[in-house]
Hints:
Blueprint: E1 2-8, H1 28-43, E2 50-54, H2 57-70, E3 78-82, H3 90-99, E4 107-112, H4 116-124, E5 125-128, H5 130-138, E6 145-150, E7 163-169, H6 171-178
Amino acid sequence: MRRLMLLRHAKTENDAPSGRDQDRRLDNRGHRDATEIGGWIGRHPPFPDLVLVSHAVRAHQTWEIAWEAMKELVPEPQVELMPELYGADVSQLLETVRDASSADPKRLMIVGHNPGMHELALALAGSGDPAGRKALTDNLPTSGLAVFDFEIDDWADVAFRRGRLVLFVSPKLLKQISGD
Length: 180
């Protein structure tokens, strides 16, 4: 069994001071949402063994803030910054997942960007939580987390429509559940 966690970066400023998209930083809501989703992850095991993070500032900040919120609760995973995750399409992301077989984590998290992350989540979901699958159809929102289980022993065997969506959660959904 392998678990894949897809975490989209948190909400960002509209423009970076440098003018470069990959330099955009999290805004105030992004900081709050990354903290909230990190705390949620920390309270809901199992936790990632390996985290692959886009090198874009917003993705890296999302991971750092989420990690800060969960680090007292979870063992520290191996973390790799990966420039190739920035702007990656669904086929590039699938290849990244399959390449994880060399490190062979049981639980892998990717922190990246739409549209690729949303398209990957839709392509992987073959079964699982019906409400989560319906909600995920519309969007993988900022700070959204989609968790998939695969009945495989090697990441190289991950394929479209073979994942079971365990859950889909976002700060907005968490607020709806808690009634805030």
